[in-house]
Amino acid sequence: MSSNAFGKLLTVTTFGESHGPAIGCVVDGCPPGLTLDAEEFRHDLERRATGRSRYTSQRHEADEVEILSGVYEGRTTGTPIALLIRNTNQRSKDYGDIVQTFRPGHADYTYWQKYGIRDPRGGGRSSARETTMRVAAGVIAKKWLAEHHGVRVRGYMGQIGDITPDAFDWDAVEQNPFFWPAADQVPALETYINALRKSGDSVGARVNVVADGVPPGWGEPIYGKLDGELASALMSINAVKGVEIGDGFAAVSQHGSEHRDEMSLDGFASNHAGGILGGISSGQPVTASIVLKPTSSILVPGHSVNLAGEPTEVVTKGRHDPCVGIRATPIAEAMVALVLMDQALRHRAQCGDVGVVEPRITS
Amino acid sequence: MSSNAFGKLLTVTTFGESHGPAIGCVVDGCPPGLTLDAEEFRHDLERRATGRSRYTSQRHEADEVEILSGVYEGRTTGTPIALLIRNTNQRSKDYGDIVQTFRPGHADYTYWQKYGIRDPRGGGRSSARETTMRVAAGVIAKKWLAEHHGVRVRGYMGQIGDITPDAFDWDAVEQNPFFWPAADQVPALETYINALRKSGDSVGARVNVVADGVPPGWGEPIYGKLDGELASALMSINAVKGVEIGDGFAAVSQHGSEHRDEMSLDGFASNHAGGILGGISSGQPVTASIVLKPTSSILVPGHSVNLAGEPTEVVTKGRHDPCVGIRATPIAEAMVALVLMDQALRHRAQCGDVGVVEPRITS
Amino acid sequence: MSSNAFGKLLTVTTFGESHGPAIGCVVDGCPPGLTLDAEEFRHDLERRATGRSRYTSQRHEADEVEILSGVYEGRTTGTPIALLIRNTNQRSKDYGDIVQTFRPGHADYTYWQKYGIRDPRGGGRSSARETTMRVAAGVIAKKWLAEHHGVRVRGYMGQIGDITPDAFDWDAVEQNPFFWPAADQVPALETYINALRKSGDSVGARVNVVADGVPPGWGEPIYGKLDGELASALMSINAVKGVEIGDGFAAVSQHGSEHRDEMSLDGFASNHAGGILGGISSGQPVTASIVLKPTSSILVPGHSVNLAGEPTEVVTKGRHDPCVGIRATPIAEAMVALVLMDQALRHRAQCGDVGVVEPRITS
Amino acid sequence: MSSNAFGKLLTVTTFGESHGPAIGCVVDGCPPGLTLDAEEFRHDLERRATGRSRYTSQRHEADEVEILSGVYEGRTTGTPIALLIRNTNQRSKDYGDIVQTFRPGHADYTYWQKYGIRDPRGGGRSSARETTMRVAAGVIAKKWLAEHHGVRVRGYMGQIGDITPDAFDWDAVEQNPFFWPAADQVPALETYINALRKSGDSVGARVNVVADGVPPGWGEPIYGKLDGELASALMSINAVKGVEIGDGFAAVSQHGSEHRDEMSLDGFASNHAGGILGGISSGQPVTASIVLKPTSSILVPGHSVNLAGEPTEVVTKGRHDPCVGIRATPIAEAMVALVLMDQALRHRAQCGDVGVVEPRITS
Predict the structure, then answer these.
(1) Residue B53: its pLDDT value, please?
(2) How confident is the model at residue C98 (pLDDT cuts 50, 70, 90)?
(3) Which of A11, A81, B184, C213 has the smallest count of CB within 10 Å of its CB?
């Protein structure tokens, strides 16, 4: 199976380099009959776009999705859905200086070591540009999950640097450029990020994703566990260095009597597990959290070596994201949605006969 | 592909329930010519065994591995290696009371909801008993990695409850029942775990794994990234709730100027990345960390419901692990080794012609 | 994915060598709730067994299947079903002379060239012994298909040497050791096979398989076509050199006006297509045909080379099948059943919402 | 894994409908460093093109391949290679009448039954238009096989209707529009096909493919056999109803003493096996043969039903291939090349250490 594809029954294959002619994806396995229009991709792509606000990189990409296949008269036909976005704003000159240099914290050196050749323009294949297609594919998964199962997948920023939300309101999340759930902290965040930008440095971030409405029974043990699939899907996002389900690493210090979620007929008493037990959804909200490392492309000079094997100093000029984690929010949502839809189809394949099992705990 | 299998080119398929006749696995894709003897599994299986010490569950399993196929005159032949362990110490009566009850924190309820039927004896398929076969398969991967690439994969406990190591010595790790890297803390740990056991409760743990000697270039972008594969392999271990690569969640608070590992001809200046950039190994040690939730089977009563849909109280009698994380150390090592061997074979398939690429940074 | 596994959603992984300790398989993806007992494997295994009659090899294998996992209180649980058969009648001395020699028409030379090592005892992994586990796995698929979809998969001999059936009666097929559909020809076949055996030679055969009751819509275009999957499943049977669907090679000489199966409300006017159009079942019986080459292990001496690279002559002593094709009948049935069940699950995954589509042609 | 993808290590995913905006493919797993230019696709695409001669359908498609990714400065980089061809000559009006009707011998009815929706324009996804991308992907495989292993994959027509070649000359094959290996029969073939066209009917065909230079050892037993993979790859081509390896169905009537290819130090005495033993290449030429059914879209009226469930008569107007098998020659070559390259990579992954094994038979 292709290493540029993921999903077992809903398979998404992406292609394209940051500064090549185009990026795209093939979504295979989507059930027939789903209405789909190219306009529907716009909202999430704008949420992801680097030009979304001045707090992320100022490169503006007019990401126009073209549906090349798999849709007839506005509905999916069951055949592969190919999506294409032309790269229109490449400005290759910006990247001329990195052709000869391995940027610290980037994949330049490792691609070079693996392949003996690399497309250095804008990071080539290793650029976060690829995640655009994940977001596009995720739009399809979100829509199918909502229509067929009432599942809603939403993300928000859980931490930027040392700042954590002091309140939580889903409505606030989409009202500010940080996907921040506490409206009153937004001005302080602006100040913080602006200061970072001026200093030429960057900072890490945490993104949380919550999927509501997931029925019990999704997820395949042992190596197709719902949490296992979420882990690889989320870890595969550029810059992600860790994945948690439910309480995650906080469980190190917890006691069993605290962590295990007790049950009654009215539901679970808590959700430390993040809605997954034994790799299978419990009916509670599925919660996952990721950490994104601070942007490596910063104005602060860094030591490195060049292609000739000589020591050199790297300074990123031009575009610069003080916190790449911010725009990872819709990407993380997309990956969670794609995993859930894949698991929904897998569950239906094996357990399509099972029906509703009693007792079912309210959640 | 089977959900009870993992790995693309080194594929491990496991089977078996905790209290069924046997557990086993099929390891497919191992190159021919590796010497292999059934005795070689003993060491790591004993490290994993619940009877290893009084600090973990006292059930003693005499895990005798039988090699059913794939080895001829002491060497692998390239055909699938089937390994079998008979379940000899099942004591089903211990588990009689859980047949009718969904234990909080366990997969009882979710398996029931998914399949409408479950083998309740000892947790059935969701029991950590399955991980025995991961450890056995990992023995093969560790050996091949060592012989062919000089790679060494080792794990240790990074935290138990709130206790963290105050020193680090690889030699200490194998000298105590906690895989603890600081010998002087062992008596205190014994006291702590004994107190926990007496209280009938349990605690979480962190396990760290380090793979030394991994050459640059292993790992397949985009959805076959080395870190992505590690994440799903490690998250699939029972009770794991989080996975980190390198600095992991600590990166939330880091600045880019701190996190990115600068390079010189003499090597990398640091290893915040955990030896992986863009999903590909950099030549530095690969480091991963996992958290295991506290054992859910404890003596402290917990609320739940039973098969009839009535409220009930669950108390685990008999065997009880105060910290399941301890014996996860060899399991995590095995999973890391299996992922690395798989990636080594994948790299050889696609990049077998590439040869040594210059400049190569010493590490 | 393992090369010793097949099937996407119903995945069968086999292991074992002809003269190793055991052969076995892991069947993953079977829906929960199917009743299953070890006795149910007996019938088809006896149909396949070499000791079935004096017309096939006289080696008698007492193939006792042990269910190692996946079944609880007589019903499948949705977890992997591992089946094991111990090799009890190995008589390794029979094969002593072939250790140093590459038998013409066998895989001896090619395994040696691929792996640089091989288990020569009885052909090792390349022995038709492996097909025992296909038959066992096929029992599960046949049962599920019958219970859930009313599908029946049956095979018969379509040709032995130049002899073809002069009548057709399903009832006759199971009444003679040749799976021959014309009872009156059986004595002549006995004479023919006995003469072949005495001459020390062997002959090829054709096996036909028919699956009745397959509903329209099974099969996944483009590279998961029902006929494509049947082709690889059937070609993977030892000694098979060709696969046909429907009219197969006879279509070379047909005109379009003859071959295309016209339709009316009462059904298709013919079934040249073998029940598959565009890779998807049409609702007509699915028909496939295979050819098996004549046994290479014969008493007639043949030229070859030995391990030392010297010319040598090979004569097979002892057991000798004058027509290996005969016992391929239940193997071919099993492969067809496994492919169909896999496709049924795949169809349910993607098109589980579609329901009955009108107009549906009676068939 | 996607049903619109094939290959384990060299994975080709295709997308697109006959009359959609475009068709395309993603080739993943190609080793880095292969030179590749869009012009290189032209030759084989023209060989396949329907407009190649007046003996096949007169629709002319200007198939201009655009390389969207995976190539940098004229060389492959190891990242996925996406190829795109815009559909420019759709003439949808030609197909207006088939929207309401299920054409006999086509996939119209089965797609409708499977999905409950279909793109009827030109056959949609089930059109042979899709094979354009197989040919394009095959160009990459042919080139890599030639450069790295000296393998050459060539096809020719083995039979049209009842006409078989009376001579064999590779040079002749590319000198006539029928890929016919006997030059003196070409005028008679022209007469034959013209008469067929006038009669409004069509005829079946056999295509043979030969791969020279395949080293011993390629192919993975048991379910990844070289012949098994060839069978599914070739059977997946539109209109194919049978696949043979080596002597194929002729082996029914052969004796073992005739069929098995005896060996000496100077090579094999014959090649009945088609270069494959036990699923692994022997070093002899790999030979495969397929049958393609006669075109179903003919001028002769045929009975069918329409969407409303009423009886109707179907007559194909306009374009009409009297023998679709002719243009299958480059498609079959492409599929064989793709399978061989995939197997070459798989072999290198598992047996990269084995080196040259003695004794090696000259071939």
Answers:
(1) 56
(2) confident
(3) B184
Name the DSSP class of B79: S
How do D276-277 and D280-281 pair as beta strands? Answer: antiparallel
Beta-strand relationship, A267-268 and D22-28:
unpaired
Positions in chain A short of pLDDT 50: 51
Cα(B270)–Cα(B272) distance, rounded to whole angstroms?
6
pLDDT of residue D99: 87
pTM: 0.97
* Contacts A307 to B, Cβ<8 Å: 359
pLDDT at A51: 43
Query: Which amino acid would we find at residue D344?
Result: A
**Closest to B248 measured CA to CA, from B263, B227, B262, B220:** B227
Rg (CA), chain B: 21
Two tokens at A288? 């996952």
Q: Which residue carries 């194998």 as its tokens?
A: B174
Q: Is the pLDDT of residue D198 over 50?
A: yes
Is there a contact between C348 and A349 if contact means CB atoms under 8 Å apart? yes
State residue A267 phi and psi, 5-degree precision. 130, -175
Nearest-by-CA chain C residue for A32? C351
Count, in order, helices (H) and strands (E) of chain C. 8, 17
Name which of A84-93, B298-307, D317-326 the model is least confident about: A84-93
- Given this structure, which CATH class describes domain B5-351? alpha beta
Question: Binding residue per annotation — A239?
Answer: yes
Radius of gyration of chain A measured on its C-alpha atoms: 21
Task: Please give the full DSSP string across C149-182, using - where no structure is assigned.
Answer: H--EEEEEEEEETTB--SS--HHHHTTSTT--S-
> C84 pairs with which residues across the strands?
C24, C66
Determine whether C324 is exposed, middle or buried from the number of CB atoms within 10 Å of its CB (0-12, 13-18, 19+).
buried
What distance in Å separates the CA atoms of residue C1 and residue D176, rounded to the nearest whole number?
Answer: 42
C250 near D162, Cβ under 8 Å? no
In 3-state terms, what secondary structure has residue D354?
Answer: coil
Element (H or E) spanning B48, and its range? Answer: helix B42-48
Whole-number Å distance between alpha carbons of B229 and A232: 6
Lookup result for tokens 């018969």: C156
Closest partner residue to B1 among C11, C20, C24, by Cβ? C11
Is D222–C4 a contact, with Cβ atoms under 8 angstroms apart?
yes
Distances (CA, A) of B303 to A133, B161, B200, D95, D282: 45, 24, 16, 66, 65
Can you give the pLDDT at residue D179? 97
Residues that constitute the known binding site of D for FMN: 125-127, 238-239, 278, 293-297, 319
Q: How confident is the model at residue B51 (pLDDT cuts 50, 70, 90)?
A: very low
From the list A210, A211, A202, the residue with the least C-alpha distance to A160 is A202
Question: Token pair for residue A333?
Answer: 């949502």
How many Cβ pairs closer than 8 A exist between chain A and B? 397
The domains of chain C are located at 5-351
Q: Count CB-CB contacts under 10 A for residue C269.
A: 14
pLDDT band at D52 (very low <50, low <70, confident <90, very high): low
A96 CB-contact burial (10 Å; exposed 0-12 / middle 13-18 / buried 19+) = exposed
Pairing type for strands D286-292 and D205-212 reads antiparallel
Query: For residue D124, is it left (φ>0), alpha (ψ between -120 and 50) or beta?
Result: left
CB A78 to CB C350 under 8 A?
A: yes
Per-residue pLDDT for D286 more than 70?
yes
Question: What are the structure tokens assigned to C161, written together?
Answer: 């040497």
pLDDT tens for D161-181 read: 999 999 999 999 999 999 999
SS3 of chain C: helix, strand, coil, percent, to 5: 35, 20, 45
CA distance D32 to D75: 7
Residues C132-167: pLDDT tens digits? 999 999 999 999 999 999 999 999 999 999 999 999
Print the SS3 string covering C31-54.
Answer: CCCCECCHHHHHHHHHHHCHHHCC
